[in-house]
Amino acid sequence: MEMRVMTDGKRRKSLAVAAAVLGGVLVLSACNDDTGGSASGSPTPPSQSQVDEAAEAAKTSKAQITIAPKTGTQNASINNDAKVTVTEGKLTDVTMTSAEGTAVKGEIAADGLSWKPSEQLERATVYKIAATATDAAGLEAHENSSFTTVSKANSFIGNFTPEDGSTVGVGMPVSINFNKAITDKAAVQGGITVTSSAGQEVVGHWFNGQRLDFRPEKYWTEGSTVTLKLDLDGVEGADGVFGVQQKTVTFKIGRNQVSTVDVATKTMTVTQDGKTIKTIPISAGSPDNPTYNGQMVISEKFKETRMNGATVGFTDDDGKGEYDIKDVPHAMRLSTSGTFIHGNYWGPDSIFGSANTSHGCVGLNDVKGAGDPNQQAAWLYDHSIVGDVVIVKNSKDKTIAPDNGLNGWNLSWADWKAGSEA
Q1: Model pLDDT for residues 250-261, shown as the tens digit of each residue
Q2: Would you call 418 helix, strand, or coil by DSSP?
Q3: Global pTM?
Q4: Angle (nearest 5°) at CA 180 between 177 and 183
């Protein structure tokens, strides 16, 4: 006997049809004595096949399928919203496709009670889900849904540093830059956790509506592991703008290396785990262009890079840069505004340790082409990693702004915590 699957509307129609079939048989039998009615005028009973068909039409599956999101939903999550569940039955088939017909992979759970996609959905995309389930009697039930995921215009992401799996220096903060302005900072910060295997207290600090950094009171403990968890999916960061990220990142803290530049003595002392391993003569910013004071963190390393004064405001009367060096060796960035510690091959050897001549960077003796590993700049470059701390002291300039690079260590712990929305 064929099993039929019906929506609620079809079920009601089938029941009505069944009633009409049975009722119609009785009516016709009673009103037409010439077609086989009994002599007593009693109605002719329906045939067994008619009864079976009417009864079968009235049967419906007990399985109840629920699909999320509901049909018509807008701004659905690309991570967690899509799912199918069933009660009083087992799922037998679920298909999910984009409006263009692209299939989305997914799996029915081993117990047959649920299904979810096994891949992240695309933003601003219409998806359709069709599900089938059977109850204990083998009767099928069907359900469908169509919804639209959150658009790029209605979502935000956070670009973070450091990278997953990296090893960094003790000064490396977790820095998150959001691609849209955040107005509900508490909600967003509540969806982010940063923890240290060393048990250090880690606190977030908002520099503005788009940047949130995390650090402990003191530098990270060497050898520890730091975990960043982004649980922002569906978090409303601004009116009608939702997070889409759901990610866990871990990175390791390397040895504790801190390099202290004394502008007055024109030397740099490099320590690892509190012990001095190298003292290097340097040339810092000239009296007209002094180097910032403060704690700075190496954020990038370049074996060679171009430095053009025009990009940081040092220009001649013709508008061109006061300098334009296309192959600065062993350069490591200390600030967003252009402060580097780098090799210098164009200055005479005599300036290192005796004269401050730069436009604000810290220079070490080097050769053109960055090919001599015995040079002081090459040694420092080879012994440094992103996240190492460089402290500059005794300069006539001010302390670097904490948001100029990854330099939040220049805020006191009380001021840092005051910028938290947790």
Answers
A1: 999 999 999 999
A2: helix
A3: 0.79
A4: 100
